[in-house]
Write a structure and sequence with these properties.
Structural class of chain A: mainly alpha
Largest sheet of chain A: none
Helix content of chain A: 55-70%
Shape of chain A: globular
Number of strands of chain A: 0
Oligomer: homodimer
Order of helices and strands of chain A: HHHHHHHH
Largest interface: A-B, 48 and 48 residues
Radius of gyration of chain A: 18 Å
Number of helices of chain A: 8
Distance between the termini of chain A: 31 Å
DNA sequence: GAAGTTAGTGATTGAGTACTAACTTCGCCG
DNA sequence: CGGCGAAGTTAGTACTCAATCACTAACTTC
């Protein structure tokens, strides 16, 4: 029932992988969990991807790409403070509506750290390149001031971490954010 | 040879656990790896701690506590901008000299997120409490302005993430940091 | 120096996991 | 229809890992 082309399947595997890896990280996620979510047998994943690492890599790249596209479309035609608010709004909305993206990011960071620690720099290269694209996507519209962009990204990272820790959005840790980044609503899990 | 009291052993298990969990995360670290580092048999860990989770929790608490103590001792007697530079310096030095602390932090965040996702809020409570202590330790000396403290912590988180991704410290992503937080040297792994 | 306690080990188990190989089913095209 | 390639499955392997149990060695107390 419902056969797909290998390419389409790979696509749905990536989506499922983002979801599962976001929750369990690389080691905490079994390929079986991913396969179940796709609705396909577990060994079939290994016909679509050479191994588990490749699936994780694809999920990481997807996550970076989507965030970059979000930045790009939010900022279209805007500059300076307007651009800043636009990205901040778009990003906070992403986080509240789809926490997977946020958690997958964190998972990606720790996975990179682990890979680098054992001397594997390939994964790191990919992620750093993706991050720099993200950076540059924000950098120009925000005014091309490294200090500004750094501060902006820093806020983003703090938001990630606070949200990951599960601080409810009416907690006082959120007090100090500039209003456009204040999140209203609640992170659903 | 070299018998220790259970309390002393627990202490060295925690130290080893911080090191190992920092690299592999919860699921990527075997209790055997920890035991090997301690120099003790793997089953003995389960006489010192009820289970693996408890070891991870202890390592997380230790990590938070040490960071808080670092903040507190760096900031002693200082206020405002001076305090800010003092903490920033101390923290960047910690990161360069002992990357375990940094990585353990990230591992802790993703573990909390995972725990919360499956409805276990106990671990989250502990980590959030520890984080708030950390927050408050910095908050007062920095001038008790929520915006200032938020910005300060945000920079810290960005540093964590950039360092975790393995950006060398002469890379342009580090350009935008205020000078006191600029890291010189190189992260050893 | 015997009695009791605490530190520590070896062997094992049972569940889970990434990955392989060999087989089956579907859909399309002549 | 028939057959062929691509999509997908079932069965299986080799391995890892948390946790348990039954036990021994070393220290302490009386």
């Amino acid at each position: 029932m419902a056969r797909m082309s290998a390419e389409e399947r790979r696509e749905s595997v990536i989506r499922a992988a983002v979801h599962e890896f976001a929750r369990g990280g690389y080691h905490g996620t079994s390929t079986e969990a991913i396969a179940k979510r796709v609705g396909v047998s577990q060994p079939y994943l290994f016909r679509l991807f050479p191994n588990k690492q490749a699936i994780f890599l694809a999920a990481s790249e997807r996550c970076l790409k989507e965030t970059r596209e979000l930045f790009a479309s939010a900022v279209e035609g805007l500059h300076g403070e307007e651009a800043q608010h636009a990205i901040a709004n778009a990003y906070t909305r992403l986080i509240t509506e789809d926490p997977d993206k946020l958690q997958m990011q964190l998972q990606m960071y720790v996975a990179v750290a682990a890979a680098e620690a054992v001397g594997d720099h390939e994964f790191g290269e990919v992620v750093r390149a993706g991050w720099m694209e993200l950076w540059d996507t924000a950098h120009l519209p925000l005014g091309a001031d490294p200090n500004e962009t750094t501060t902006f990204m820093a806020y983003g990272m703090l938001i990630n971490v606070l949200a990951a820790m599960g601080f409810p959005f009416d907690h006082r840790v959120w007090e100090g954010f500039y209003p456009s980044a204040r999140i209203t609503g609640r992170l659903e899990r």
